[in-house]
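Extended Data, record 6-phospho-beta-glucosidase
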Amino acid sequence: MKGLNTMTRFPKNFLWGGATAANQYEGAYNLDGKGLSVQDVTPKGGFGPVTEEPTPDNLKLEGIDFYHRYKEDIALFAEMGFKVFRTSIAWSRIFPNGDEETPNEKGLQFYDDLFDELAKYGIEPLVTLSHYETPLHLARTYNGWTNRELIGFYERYVRTVFTRYKDKVKYWLTFNEVNSVLHAPFMSGGIATPLEELSKQDLYQAVHHELVASALATKVGHEINPDFKIGCMVLAMPTYPMTPDPRDVLATRQFSNQNYLFSDIHARGKYPNYITRFFKENGIKIQFADGDKELLAHHTVDFISFSYYMSTVQAHNPEAYSSGKGNILGGVTNPYLESSEWGWQIDPIGLRLVLNDFYDRYQLPLFIVENGLGAKDVLVEGPNGPTVEDDYRIDYLRKHLEQVGEALEDGVEVMGYTTWGCIDLVSASTAEMSKRYGFIYVDRHDDGTGSLARYKKKSFDWYKEVIETNGANI
């Protein structure tokens, strides 16, 4: 395999680009009619405490001011040669409370202008409809997705944006990392009940409502424009047994099924048999409304998209090992892997495994819509002005892209690759600016200071060459 010309690995129409989320970079949280979202009251990140009102230390309120600087930033993305740019629409910019009858025209106009700017450079938008941005009113009044009424509110929202942008956007994702609701119900599902007080019945009923809403969005989108490509988006995490002990292997299978549940229903259109026992043992009885079963069955997704940052290890007796505290979904520490500055274990081969597992399971096109390294970058003076010598990021991305190439050689159909946080933005998990992912450094810091000036990192030119050569320089 090593001697192969990498030019043959990536297809000519491969969608290279970068990924962002409105709540982490737009700012303008209270301008032009926008309502509050769950992000505006979580100043310490999605796993931190919730406040009653926005507080000045919440960096997400200003983000990196993309709302006013999008033309400058898109020009930089175009300079790198982006084929695709993943962003999200802030639901509360379109329906400020989430349950209004009439949308906010100024919010709709902003995304019109954004998509027009992308079109100037021939960059395809890839739009997430709900990226941890549930309107706060829906969380506090309805308890988020535990309430079936949210399906109707979501349908109104997606009909509005599908109709408005039917000739500007082709690629859509229904919910970001939809399986994360099991671990971060407020951030992911707008569920106001604290996780430790939330019953499994209510949690999995909320999951059902989101899955039905996703199928409904897929149905509506295909009716509005049959050329739409609509995908789900899951947090992918390959899972290894700590030892060959069959009990560890079983624990691994059970953990994996918790995540496969979401992609299985999105892609296969029905609840898998393996979840029946879990529901029975935990007293969970999913309430199906008339038409739910048919909706799930007949409106499956066109492709599977996912984020990939790390793998995890499971054991039947996890207390016997050190815990992988940095890993989003827990597990125990893998002694064979290095970790990032935030404790996320780095596993490039895991990406190849995920790609093969998903493709073998579903035979649907795959899209890697998040992957990247959060690090404490240091701005230094370079020959062309301030920059960051981020060879560690280049190394991380190169090793992961090598594995994407291997998966393509394995026969996996991969649509594209968008690195997470292609421009520095506020971290979702910790609400820090110092956890930087981008090719573009933004002069803003954890204390809120900074000029917001943009500077190209060393990785900027490297990724530009990756796109120019279609991966031949990896």
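Summary. Residues 200-224 form the longest helix (25 residues).
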